[in-house]
């Protein structure tokens, strides 16, 4: 199995990546896998210029040829499973991931057809034919609709991805004795989820519910986060 792991955190040490690695460790237990890892750090992706000339060339080639997007497009084509791993930024996609998505427009042709649900463009390559896993990190548990926009986007763009939005990722950056057991519990859940995905090719509704459930009550989470504030630490 060829897995493409696209981690799109702008940080040198991405906590979302830590979570995704726990998931992939589980997945790789079930079947031999080759993982190609591409991070925002290693690759330069320029913004789409919006001229849509790719739709008329109809060969899947973007007009921008002097950055790393061709490598990413080639890796997408070669993979069996694409893992989209990213932090939630302002309830949406981090800019570096949006830049990649916009550039995949080069797979489309100007020609349109009426699909089952949407009006669709003909494509030189159908990204939705791949299997997709989406792992999103965020820092706001107990926040209704925190991930709603991203979930809708992913469903529309990737069609039926296996997806988990983890709401207490901000804790993973911290190393306090009371936080360690929470990290362990979260990584264990992700590891199990990876095994489940490897065996079934999907994540059950119950697994997603567990992954997305906060590990601690709201007041405890707030107290833990506040204990990291500089003025608290100085006391
Ligand atoms: C610009 C920015 C915006 C953010 N917006 C949100 C948000 O809307 N909701 C949320 O739950 N977390 C938000 N966060 C917190 C991050 O999603 C969280 O800390 C993340 O999981 C960090 O992952 P990383 O280490 O992989 O970058 C934001 C962080 C940044 C830097």
From TrEMBL:
<protein>
    <submittedName>
        <fullName>Flavodoxin family protein</fullName>
    </submittedName>
</protein>
<dbReference type="Pfam" id="PF02525">
    <property type="entry name" value="Flavodoxin_2"/>
</dbReference>
<dbReference type="InterPro" id="IPR029039">
    <property type="entry name" value="Flavoprotein-like_sf"/>
</dbReference>
<dbReference type="InterPro" id="IPR051796">
    <property type="entry name" value="ISF_SsuE-like"/>
</dbReference>
<keyword id="KW-0288">FMN</keyword>
<feature type="domain" description="Flavodoxin-like fold">
    <location>
        <begin position="1"/>
        <end position="145"/>
    </location>
</feature>
<keyword id="KW-0285">Flavoprotein</keyword>
<dbReference type="InterPro" id="IPR003680">
    <property type="entry name" value="Flavodoxin_fold"/>
</dbReference>
